[in-house]
Amino acid sequence: MNLLDWFKYLAQGKGTAAQPSPPPPELGAVKDDAIVQGLDFSAAIEAHRKWKARLIDFIEGRSQEKLDPAVICQDDKCALGRWIYGEGKTFCGHLPKFHQLKAEHAEFHIHAAEVVQLVQKGHLDEARQSVLEGPFAQYSMKTQTSLAKLYMEMKS
Length: 156
Hints:
InterPro entries: Chemoreceptor_zinc-bind_dom (IPR025991). By secondary structure, this protein is an all-alpha fold. The protein is built from 8 helices and 2 strands. The protein has a two-stranded antiparallel sheet with strand order 1-2. Strand 1 and strand 2 (39-40) form a beta hairpin.
């Protein structure tokens, strides 16, 4: 699957919490194609995909990482969030797909922070459920799908 086909696949929203979308293709020389208006869409999708494994490791006690829900819930701190509130707003603020991405990305961060709070309170099963098929999983897929849809619109 090449980069464009991967974005098309994600834009269709075929991935689910139970059947996640495939990983991005090996980019090599086409990496520049993933960058539009200052955002590497492929890297943004992959960074948000990796949160699932990061949170599972945290839930299972395999991570020494100090995760702070007060920081995680801030949707303007990651590379995608900085783009959304900066260049993205300037170049794409008129697009409905941009506003959908902004809202879903904010929810993604809220639910990631909630998972960490659940772990801190000892509610491991509830945290695991959120990551695997609950709110975190749903907004993770929605964020990836919205990124792919916005990419496709901007490239057309």
